[in-house]
Structure formats: C-alpha cells, structure tokens
Amino acid sequence: MDYAERLKKLPPYIFVEIDKKKKKALEQGRDIINLGIGDPDRPTPEKILKFIKEAAEKNENHKYPIGRGSKIFKDAIITWMDKRFNVGVENDEVLALIGAKDGITHLPLAFVNPGDIVLIPDPGYPGYLAGTLMAGGEPYFMPLKEENGFLPDLSAIPPEVFKKTKIMWLNYPNNPTSAMADYSFYEEVLSYAEENSFIIAQDAAYSETYFKEPPISILEIKGAKKNCIEFFSMSKTFNMTGWRVGFAVGNKKIINGLSTVKENMDSGTVCALQEASANALLYCDKEAEEIRNLYKKRAAIFYIGLKEIGYEVFAPQATLYLWVKVPENYSSLEFANIALDMADLVITPGIGFGKEGDRYFRIALTVEEDEIHKAIERFKKLKDIL
Ligand SMILES: Cc1ncc(COP(=O)(O)O)c(C=O)c1O
C-alpha cells in the first residue's frame, strides 16, 4: 500500500527524536518543565463551561449544524466585529469553523490550482504549508526577519512570483515571533494584492492575547473586503483549544469558496459549542481580559529573567510565546536536545516553523509563575555550561 503523492510531499515531522526523549524522561519521573506546546494550561472559564452545559441540554442543538454557522453564532460574530474593530460585517461574510485550523488548511482547496503560488511566512504556523501542499500549490516562503520587525519584505518578492500568486498568508499577532502588524503594513500588502489579484488570508488566532495596544483587524483598512479573509479563534482567547471553534470573516466570494469546500468535507461546528461561543463573544470580556493579563505577566517575568542572564529575547508584544535566539554555534534542534538532556526543559526549536526559524527557539507561556522562575534558573545553568 502506497501513500498518495500529496501526503508524501508533506515535510517530515522533525520533532520525532525530541518527542521520544521527552516521553522517556517523563517515564523516568524526571521533573520536566514543558514550554513546548501552545496549549493553555488553565481550564476553560467556569462561565463558558456553564454556557456549554446549558447549550448541550437543548434538543435543537442535537441535530446536524446547518449552513455556514448557526444564527446565534453568526449574529454574535457580527456584533463582536463591530464592537472590537468597528468593522461592519454582513451575514454572508461570516463562516463558523472547527477551529481556525479548519479554515486555514482548507482555504487553498477552494482557490489554488496545481502550480499556483501561495506566499507563506517563514517562520510560520505549519498549517499554511500543509494546506498549500494538499491543494497542489507551490509554496514561496517570505522570510520574517528581526530587522524588519518580523514583517515580510514585499519589495524582495519578484513581480513574476506575485503574478502567479493566489493566496498570501499573514499571521499577526505572529506565532512564533509575537510581532504585530500596523495599518501602514496592511495598506502596503493590500496594494500588492489589488495589483496582482490575489487573496490575503490573515490569521488572527491570537487577536485577543496582546500585551499593549490591541491588534487591529486587516478588515479595518479601506477596501480590504475586496481581497481579504481573516481567521479568528476561540482557542487561546478563552482557553478553549479542546472545544474546536473558530470563525472566518471577509470577502463574500472567498467565504463562499471556503464554505463550499467545507460543506463537502465536514458537517459543521457542533451546535452547542457555536451557541456557547456566541455567549462567550458577547458576555465574557472579563474572562478574556484575565487570560490576557495572565500571559502578559508571565511574558514579562520570563522576558526580564532571560534577558538578565544573557539570552537575546525579542520583546513580546502578544501571543503565548517568547521568541529567543539560540546560543552561538548551535542549531535550534541541537539546542532543544541539549535543553532537554541537561536541564529538563522542553522548548520548540525554531526550525519547526521553517528554515528562517533555525536561529531561534520558542517558549510557550503555558506554565505557572513558580515554574517560570525554575525554568529561568535552568536556562541560566545551561548558559553557564555552554
Ligand atoms: C498561528 C495559529 N493559527 C491557527 C492556529 C489554530 O487555532 P485553532 O485552535 O483555532 O484551530 C494556531 C494554533 O496554535 C496558531 O498558532
């Protein structure tokens, strides 16, 4: 039995070795601090659990979800987009998703033909590449460099590449670098999209986990609805990764394309969870703020601690992550292995997000403060040894 070519094209899973070591270390009872995975350590807030339980009791929520999302969820998204970004959205500009990943990985199937180019940030969330390859598209990587504030340098992309481009992926606030984008950057990107008729797909999965000014939506830019779709997620905003709810907002035709793919592949987002998510968007600002403040505090402690002991850390602006330079003379994978072997620390090597990530590692802020202090001590020991 042979796998299909599209599956063989997916990049190899490079964390195999590190995952094996982590499992063994845990079996041996070692005191591992897991800073690897971006999955919130705290539970879904009580108030949202109550919404979920109440919605699960209702008979009407026991049937197949219909259309592009339930009325209650789509109405709540429209209200939230207005309140949060002052962006007016119509009913057919909204789509419920089974987490943002659902929309991200399926979008290319609606718009990319074999050989079409998809512009992908490097480093970047692996879903952009996976979806592109599954659709037979050609990835073209846009390096995100520290000297450019981890924004892609559009002037470095050849015009013939733009001509063949169908989708450009953006992700701000950015995983893994924690960088943010502003109006002028989005305006510049939009002018390229307009000139070359490609879609801008902006992944705003971390839109609510910010540490200073709230991130803007690309849809706030005049004319953005001509070419843009933006992805949002309940996962990190409300500690809801396990419930799998997200949504997309944007151009009608793009929403329609993605929706057509999904109608043929899945049967929608669990009705009770759409209802609970609607209530979370409408009535849980306080919960979102508490979660945001928790990560903000953790980020500040970790950032200062690592800087004091000589690590080069990019000042965190948002997300659940710190993006840190690996010490000289090590690849990110080598350093991640050493961190686990010598200091019982699990980190994500930057190479996991693309070639450009190899000079960095990512720390997830998903452990309590006492563990963060312990982790800083361990990073210090590592620094002294290396
Ligand atoms: C940048 C980015 N986009 C999307 C996702 C997926 O989000 P969801 O849980 O809504 O599928 C993640 C998850 O870690 C992410 O880091």
Notes on the protein architecture:
The protein has 386 residues and is of the alpha/beta class. The chain folds into 2 domains: 5-44 and 286-385, Aspartate Aminotransferase, domain 1; 46-283, Type I PLP-dependent aspartate aminotransferase-like (Major domain) (Aspartate Aminotransferase, domain 2), CATH 3.40.640. It has helices spanning 5-8, 16-27, 46-57, 71-85, 100-111, 127-134, 159-163, 183-196, 252-265, 271-283, 285-308, 332-343, 369-385; strands spanning 33-34, 94-97, 117-122, 138-143, 165-170, 199-203, 228-233, 246-250, 321-325, 345-346, 348-349, 360-364. It has a 7-stranded mixed β-sheet, sandwiched between helices. The protein has a 3-stranded antiparallel β-sheet with strand order 9-12-11. Helix 11 runs parallel beside helix 13 (369-385). The termini are far apart. It binds pyridoxal-5'-phosphate. Pyridoxal-5'-phosphate binds next to helix 5.
